[in-house]
User: Fold these one by one.
Assistant:
Number 1:
Amino acid sequence: AGVDIGGTKAIAVLAEGRQIAARYRIVTTTPDETLRALSAQLLRWNGAGELASLGIASFGPLRLDRDAADFGHILATPKRGWAGAPVADALTTGLDCPWQIDTDVNAAALAEYRWGAGDGCSSVCYITVGTGVGGGIAIDGRAVHGALHPEIGHLRLRRVPGDPFVGVCAFHGDCIEGLVSGPALAARLGDDPAAVQADDPRWGLVASDLAELVCAILLTTSAQRVLIGGGVCEGKPFLLPLVRGAAVERLGGYLPFFDHASAADIVRAPALGSDAGPLGAIALAHLAREAIA
C-alpha cells in the first residue's frame, strides 16, 4: 500500500506490483483528522489481506534521520497545524510490515525513475508546482538525502529586472515557491490563474522564474531529466515550451548537452501524470520490501 499526502488532498492506494487496484482519497485537513482516516483505511486493507509493505510520501519538510527522536515527523511548514505532525507513527501503528517514508517529490522522482519519464536515466529530478513548489532527486534508484532532503522550492534565484512582485513565502518572500506556487500566482496575477489567458505577458515572468530553477538544477545536479508536474503546469501546457526556451538562452551554450534540440527531451512533463504521487508511495513500498529480501 501507499499513502501520498499533499497540501490539499491525501490519497491511499492499494497496488499489485505497480498496478493500482484501489484508491481512497480525502481532503487534507488537520493532522489528527487526516492521519486517522488514512490509518483506518490502511487497517481495513490489511484486515482483508495482510499488506506486504507500506510506502509513505508526504509534503515536507520531513525528518528522515532514523536516529532522530522525531523521525517521520513534519518539521516547520507553512501548512497551518502540521508542524510536528507524527506522520510515520500515525500511519504505521497496527501494521506489521516493512515501510519507508520520504517526501512526496522524492517519491515521485523514484516512480518516474522506475516506471516513467526517467526510464533509461541514472538521475532524475521531479518538480511539482502546485500548492507549494517541491523538488525531489533520484540517483541510481535512490532518493537523495543528506542533512535533510532537497528543498528546491526555497531557492532564491535571479529575477527579471523590474518585476515588482515581492513573493508570498512566509519564510523567504521571493523564493521560487513564493513566486510560482498556486497561491503565489493568485497573488501575482490578481485572479484565479486558470482564468488568466496564455497571452498575458505576466506568464513570461513566471516562465522566466521556472527557467532559472531549471538552470540551477542542471548546473548543480547534472540531472538527465527535469520533470515539471503539479496542478499549475498541468493546467497551463504552454508554460513548458517557454521554460525550455528561456533556460537554453540563460545557459548561453555552457552545458554541451543542453540546447534547443535536446531541451524537449531533458525538460518535460512527468510520464505518470497525476499518478506520479501515488505511484511514488508504491515505489517506496517496493524499496521497503526489497530492503528485507
Note: The chain is about 35% helix and 20% strand.
Number 2:
Amino acid sequence: MRSETNSVVARLINRVFPRMPDFYSLIDEQCDLAVEVMSELVAFMSSGNWDKAALVGKLEKRSDELKARNLDVLNRAFSTPMDREDLYRAIVTVDHVVNYAKTTVREMEVLAVEPDHYMLEMAQLLHQGVVALQRGFRKLPKDPASAEEDADAARKAERNTEKIYRRALADLLDPDHYIKTRKDKHSAAIASIEGLLEPLGQHSEPVALAVAFVVDTFKHREVYRHMSNAGDRLAHAGEVLHDIVVKIS
C-alpha cells in the first residue's frame, strides 16, 4: 500500500515539477554534427568530389531536425540549467554555421565554381572553429571556466578566415594573376564568349578574355564572401559560448 502511495506521489511530483532535460547533451549532439558537416566540407574543398558536397547538404538536414527538436524541448521545459535566452542562442547559432556550409556548396554548384586553395583554407579554419565550440560546450557541465579558451579559439578561427578572404580577393581582382593561373575551363569559357563577339573581328579575343575575367571574378567573390559570412556566424557562436561561461562560472 505504501509503495502504491509513493508511486502516486512520485507521478504527481513529476507532473507538477517535471525533470529538467539534459540541455548540455542536446547541444553537444548539435556540435558533433556541425563538426561532421565541416569535415565533409573540407573533404569537398580538398578533393572537388561533388559527392562530398551532396553529403554536406544531407547532413545539414539532420542539423535542422536537431535544432527543431532542441527548440521544442526548450519551449516545453519547466526549468533550465542556464538562461533560456542563452540556450536558444546556442541552439540557433550552431545551426547557422552548418547552414552556411550547405549554402556555400549550393552556390558553388549553381555558379559552376570549383574549389580552390583559398576555399580549402577557409573551410579548414571553419572546421577548427566548430571543433573549438564542440570542446567548449562539452566543458560546461563540469568545468565551465575552462571553456573560455575554446570560445576564444572559435573567434580566432573567424579572424583568420577573414584574413584568408582578403588575400583571396586581392588575387581575384588581379588580372595578371587570372591569366597566370588560367586553366582549361577558363579557356573554354573565353572561347565561348569569343564566339559571341565574333563581329568584333581581331578584337574579339582580348574582349572575351576581359569578359571572362569579370564573370569569373564575380562568381568566386560570391563564394569567398559566403565563406567569410560563415566565419561571422562562427564568431557569433563563440560569443554565445563566452556569455554562458561568464554567467555560470
Note: DSSP finds nine helices and no strands in the chain.
Number 3:
Amino acid sequence: YPMKGPRWQDGDYFRTVNLVSHEVLSELAGMKDVRNYRILYADDKLNSGFWAMNASYYGLRGFQLYMNPLPLEQFQYMPRRFNIRHYYPLLGAKYYLCNPCDANLLRDYEFMTDISGYQLYVAKQALSRYSIMNRLVGSYVGPDDFLRKINAGGYDYTKEFYVRDSEFATVANWLGNQSISSALLKEETPSLHSIRVSVNTQERAVFILNEYFNKNWKARVNGVAVNLIPVNANQIGVLLEKGANLVEFDYRPTLFIQLLWLQRLAVLCVAVYILFSAATSTRVFLKVRERLSHM
C-alpha cells in the first residue's frame, strides 16, 4: 500500500474547510440517535478521513479513517463499496453527509436536510449497533462471496443474516425452524469498548453486534464466556437461549493490554533503579563525609 506522509498544512485547524466540518459535526452530534449508527462522508474539499477524525471528537462513528491502523480485512472490505446495494445501511450507516454525493449510494438513502452547504441523507433502513435475529438465510465462504450474494438482491438484512460456511450447521441446528419472533432489549451500560444489554426473546435467537468481527471482542451470556460467530462478513454474533439473557461485550486487545503491563513493569524497574542509585549515592556521600571528619 503506497503510504503518503501527512503534509504540515494538513494540520492547520483554522482552514475554512476544517472549521466548516466542525460546524457541521457539532450539529450532527445534537441529533438524538446518531451515536447508535454510523455516518458516511464525501467531500471534494476536505478528505473524508479528516471528517472521520474530526467526528471522533464528537463521539460520532464512521468507516473512513486517517492514519489509523486497521486489520487488513477491514481495510479491504469496508471502504469504497458504494456500488453494492444495502451494504452500508447493513453495517449501521444510517446517515450519509456529502457534497458531491455518489449516485450509487443514494439508492439506499433519502434526502433529509442541508447543513452548511452539505446534503444529509438518511437510510431507508439501517441496522443499529446491535440487533436480535432468528432467521438464517444462508452461508458464505469469504467476504467476496458474501458481497456477491447481497448484491444479487432478495435479502432482507433487517430480518435475516448470513454466517460463515463453517458455522452454518451449528447456527442452523440451534435456531431450527421457527418464525420471526419479537425481543425486548434494554441497554445497561453503553460505551465505545463495552456493551451490556438485557435481552428477552420468545425463541432462540442470535444477538448481532454491529462491529467488525475481531477476536479482541470478548463476549459473555449470563456471565459465561461464549464463542463469537462471524455474521454477514463484518459483524459479530452470539447464540441466545429463549427467555431472559444478559449479553456482555468487552473490547480487550490482548497485545495492547500486555504492552500496558510491560510499560508498568518498565516504569517500576526505572523507579527501583533510581531509588537504588539514590541510596547508593547517599551511602557513598556519608562515607566520604565521615572520612573527611576524621582528618
Note: The CA atoms of residues 19 and 184 lie 42 Å apart.
Number 4:
Amino acid sequence: SHKLSNRQQEQRLREHFVSARRVREWRDIHTQLHTVVAEHKWRLNTQPASYEELHKSMLAGLLGNIGFKPEEEDVYLGARGIKFHRHPGAHLRKKPGRWIVCAELVETTRLFGRGIANIDPTWLEEVGGHLLKKQLLDPHWEKKAAEVVAFERATLYGLVVYSGRRKPFDKVDPQAAREMFIRQALVAGDVLPEWHKRLPFLAANEKLTAKVEELEHKSRRQDVLVDEELIYAFYDQQLPQDITSGRSFEQWYRQETAKRPELLLLTRDELMRHEAAGITPAAFPKMIRLGGVDCQASYLHEPGDARDGVTVAVPLFVLNQVSEERCEWLVPGMLKDKIQAL
C-alpha cells in the first residue's frame, strides 16, 4: 500500500461523495482527543463504545440541547422554556422518540434542532443529577408500607425528568412525618390488621374508646369522650422524637414493653373529661322487655337522625304483643328530660 498525497486523498473522497473539509475536522478533533487522553494517562477502549455510552458522554456537554415531545404536539420543549422543531434535513431511519438530544440548535425561519439522537430520560439523571431540581409532593401515611411517603418530582432546566417517585418523608421532614404517623396510625387506627396482634395496646385503646363513645350517646352529651387532640398529646408525650415510622416504632415498643407492660395503654380517666354522672346499666339498659321478650336497645345521640335517642330491635313475632304505652316510657335515664319537656 502506498501513501496517497493530500490532493489524491481529496480526489478519492470526492469520488465517494464525502466532504474533505468534514474529514479534516474529524481528524483534528480525533488528534485533540488523543492528546487529552495521553496527557491524563487514560486507557483507550479495546472495543467501540455502545450507543448508550457514546450519548451519555455527549449529554455531559449538551444538557442544554435536550428536548421532550408531548404526545399531542409536533414540537419539542427544550431547556428553559424554548420550543424547537426537528430540522427538515434530519433524515433518520425512524422517527425520534419523546426524549432527544441535538448536536446544535439553529434559528432560521424558526428554531430547529439538528443532529438529533434518541436518549433515555434515565440518562439525564445519571449525567446531570447535580442539576436536577427536586420537589416532594403530597406526603401521606401508607399503612401497607407503615411509613409516611411523599412523591418526588425532578426537573432539569424546567423539563420534568420524572414524577411520582415514592420517597420516605421522614428523611426530609422527620417532625412532620412523626406527627402524621401518630395521627394516622395510632390515633385514627389506620393500620394493617396484623398490627393489632403485634401491638395489643391498639385494640385495648379502641375498645375503651368505643365504651366511652357509648356513654356519650346514652348521656346525650358531646363532651364525655376525649377529643383526638388529647389522644394525640398522650402518644406524643410517650414516644421518643426519632419515632417516625412503623418499623422504628415496633422496635422501640418491643424493647420498652419488656420494662413497662402497661406502656401506651389509655385509662378511662384519661379518655373522659369528667364522669358521666348517672350513666349506669340500670338507667340505660342494654335489653328492654317488650311483649314478654328481652329486646336489644341501642343508643345514638345525633339530633335529626331517624335513629336519634333509643332504638329497640323487636322480633317480628313479638310485634303485635308490644304495648304502645310501654314504648312511651323509654328508659329510666331518659325520663327526667322527657318530664321536663312535657
Note: The chain is about 40% helix and 20% strand.
